[in-house]
Amino acid sequence: MRQMAFALLVLAATSTSVLAHSKPEQTTPANETTVATVKAIEMRFDDPMRVTAITLAGPDGEISIERETGMDAVTEFRALPPADLPNGAYRVDWRGLSSDGHPMQGTFGFTVAE
Ligand SMILES: [Cu+2]
Questions:
Q1: Which one, of 112, 111, 94, 110, lies nearest residue 45 by Cα?
Q2: Is the pLDDT of residue 70 over 80?
Q3: Which of 60, 68, 85, 88 could disulfide-link to 78, CB 3.0 to 4.6 Å?
Q4: Which pLDDT score is estimated for 61?
Q5: Which Pfam families does the record match to this protein (predicted)?
Q6: Domain 23-112 adopts which CATH fold?
Q7: What is the 75 CA–ligand 1 centroid distance (Å)?
């Protein structure tokens, strides 16, 4: 019985902290959209986020992107992909630390088609 109460407490604490955390409000390209070109990869957070890692995976595997935003906590994160991404499906995965120091992660995807 004590274990059950503890489990519920953990569950409640977890869901509260998830709700309290900043997820990207908007991304560029927007999630699940099709675009002709990608000039920048951007994420906007409602609370400052220190993005500690970000990867871009495309049809031929991982693609290196150039961070324009450093390791500071920001509400607008920006990175630059190589010019002329080939057509295909892309996925961005990121990890970060929210303003209260909790680890966060997220993902979004888009398609390049000309
Ligand atoms: Cu937190």
A1: 94
A2: yes
A3: 68
A4: 97
A5: CopC
A6: Immunoglobulin-like (2.60.40)
A7: 16
Residue pointed to by tokens 């059950």: 4
Distance from the alpha carbon of residue 89 to the mean position of ligand 1, in angstroms: 32
Instruction: Give residue 101 CA to ligand 1 midpoint distance, Å.
Output: 6
Locate the domains of the chain by residue range.
23-112
Mean residue pLDDT across the chain: 88
* CA–CA gap between residue 36 and residue 85 (Å, rounded): 9
Non-local CB neighbours of 39 within 8 Å, separated by 6+ positions: 80
* Mean pLDDT (whole number) for 75-83: 97
Task: Give 5-59 pLDDT, tens digit per residue.
Answer: 555 555 555 544 455 677 778 999 999 999 999 999 999 999 999 999 999 999 9
Q: Cα dist. 90→10, 22, 49, 86 in Å?
A: 35, 23, 23, 10
Tell me if 26 sits within 8 A of 56, measured CB to CB.
Answer: no
The Cα–Cα gap between 29 and 58 comes to 14
DSSP-derived secondary structure letter, 68: S
